[in-house]
Amino acid sequence: MPLSARFSFARPPLLDQSRFAPVTQRPPSSTDVAVVIPLHNKAAYIARTLNSVLAQIHLPSEILVIDDGSRDDGVAVMRDWMANHFEALQRARIRLQIFQQSQTGPGAARNRGAKMATAPLLVFLDADDEWMPTFLAEATTALQAHPDCMLAAFGQFRGQAQTDQLGRFRALGIAPGPWRLPVDLAAQLMKPVVDFVFSGATVVRRTVMDQLGGFYTQAGCTYGEDTYFWLQAIINYPIYRDPTPLMWYHTECSELGLWNRQAPISPILLHPEPLRHHCPPEYQIFLERYLAQVAIMTARRFASYGDRDTARALLAQFPLSRTFYADHAKANLDILLTNFPQLRSWILRAKFST
User: Quick check: 66 and 39 in contact, CB under 8 A?
Assistant: First the structure.
């Protein structure tokens, strides 16, 4: 049975409700940015996020908040924030719109916001994260200076302690400037290099969304829906990278992330065919090796949950996983150990005690 058949759910319908703050429109510019914010049960944080948008040196032309079936008073908080900042929005000629829909997941919310936006540049900021004041200025400047680059991605601070990731990114060879994915990128760099492109820290040209179709939306997916899109962008276009942290990813506030639950299977493994369809011929081998590497990691994770059937199915569906000899052997050992839970517990205790 295909993995996609093992993990499928129905999608609820959309509600079509919107509210907006009317403004005098700006003259169109190639540096206009639309900020799309998916909102789901983030009433406690959305004002902080919007404050960081309004504090930008380069202000956006549009802010589109997509309330994705929230059960808290996030929309009421939004209305209050809009009323309190109405004059500032008018002066900056920022059009702010709020759309409400039944819960369909962050991918669908981002895609809807992108469809409703008119600016040539798009950025997707989660409702509990925030930017440093120079983020949009740095990103738009980079894209102006490098018109062949289809997105500009920057580093992030992470967690309540605002941990700086700059050293880790530099160790991966990430430096400011244009970059094209090497077709022969070393295996140990594949996943970290792809993961560097992070939704809230990336400004992308609208044409990329139009050509690739946007974020993954099936089954209201809340895990890996962003990687599904950014992976396609990375293998199709030159991009601009800068490891300087200009965005703050508040992992401590994440409800949809993996900080308090078991991770499901990423959609890149459940539905890889669209990825293959959009992949240029010269990157086909890279894509298959990347998928195989992620399949091994996911198989080991499911083995740790005691689900050996899913772990085996993952390895079987991505046969290039066998070319990662050591990691594939470790995954098979993890699967074998699911038959001996006491032995596995002893091995884990021994591992973490050393």
Answer: yes
